[in-house]
Amino acid sequence: QVLGREGPFPLILLPQFGGFWIEGTNHQLSGTPESPQTPAPSTRAKLEGNHTAKIYRKHFLGKEHFNYYSLDPVLGHLVFSLKYDEQEQLHLLLRTRARTLHDVVPISCLAEFPNVVQMAKLVCEDINVDRFYPVLYPKGACPPTPRRFRGGLDVTHGQTGSESVYCHFRDKEIMFHVSTKLPYTEGDTQQLQRKRHIGNDIVAVVFQDENTPFVPDMIASNFLHAFVVVQLEQGSTQGTLYKVSVTARDDVPFFGPPLPDPAVFRKVSTHGAEKPEPPNFSRSSSSASSFGSAEEPGEHRFHMYK
């Protein structure tokens, strides 16, 4: 029905029964064309983060401390770190698949010095284990060589395609799953090789060659929560332009940086302007109620449609 009307059409059409919010609905340029503004060197768009993900690096890494592990029948694998500092305090850090818990306990507050299990229970009373096992580092063992973030792609045998889009942004590794670069299997109506990456990402970037609206619930996925829709606008007196709209499920909190009004970017400005959006979207989406026990994301994977 929508396509039967006279255009231009919006970049995004919200589903008939709701469930999504949208930002960036005005794409009408008015007035005299302005020159692209170059951000000041000190200007930095905010990249959303979670301070708990950096607690180990801040308080434990490079300092004398002890690491332990155990397996809880309900909470799953547990990693517990403790450190005694010169202020006579215990730094306690418990990491589970669902969350990271940190506490600082003055020694003077303890009637008697607890064992490792008791110390872990000071951070999380739900722990149900008999003991924690120390993490041992064999003498002379070499630390593993760091590898670039693969985003679930096969970089050894090429079973997920021969190339993708990868970049660094603010010390974050970003891997894009590009639909046209993932394997296409003739005769496979399900296209499972593409589906297993598309359906398991949290954020999707949809690139529109033409003025065809996108409806966010047209893709059935329990993981896809947010979409950044980009539409090319050529033939303008201002050069090549990109219209941008974002949409997400209702339980995904709003995040920054906000889109300008109108939500239109010149080609020269898109590189720096939009980069914070997908990582912030990923971080914000992980706070949605449907990700109640989701693991805190350390790297970011995104899907690109065209």
TrEMBL record:
Q: GO cellular component annotations, sorted alphabetically?
A: cytoplasm; membrane
Give me the segments passing through the membrane.
none
Q: Which residues form a coiled coil?
A: none
What keyword terms does UniProt attach to this protein? GTPase activation
Q: Where is this region: Disordered?
A: 269-306
Q: What is one GO biological process annotated to this record?
A: regulation of small GTPase mediated signal transduction
Which residues fall in a compositionally biased region of kind Basic and acidic residues? Answer: 297-306
Q: Which residues form the Rap-GAP domain?
A: 63-306
Please name the GO terms that the record assigns under molecular function. Answer: GTPase activator activity
Q: Which domain of life is it from?
A: Eukaryota
Q: Where is the composition biased (Low complexity)?
A: 280-295
**UniProt cross-references to InterPro entries, sorted A to Z:** Rap/Ran-GAP_sf (IPR035974), Rap/Ran_GAP_dom (IPR000331), Rap1_Ran_GAP (IPR050989)
PROSITE patterns in alphabetical order: RAPGAP
> What name goes with this protein?
RAP1 GTPase activating protein
